[in-house]
Amino acid sequence: MRVRFTHACRAYYNNMGLDHQAGDIVEHADDYARYLVSSGAPVEILDDGTTGNGPTADYDPVGTIAAIQAWVGTDPDRARQAYDTEAAKADKARPTLLAALGELLGQLDATGAAE
Asked: pTM of whole model > 0.90?
């Protein structure tokens, strides 16, 4: 995964304060990049670090909604995996995430690709 900082900030990771400037790119550090996304740091995702299509083992079903949506992107296989995993939580499922994934799946089913 690669992310770019949109603003200067200090991010704390593994008990260390790491200073970043706007435009800094984090790459080849998937755990750190995913942490930045899930923690709401001022970053934009440049790519999710995968090659090819389909679900991968890096899916975190307890991640934040933003992190899961970033992982899914517009990939229908990932959207289905995330939806099915979340729905399987029954009464602990997050309705906001299910709605967003359901909407994406509906768009993908209707057009064959994301709008």
From this structure: no
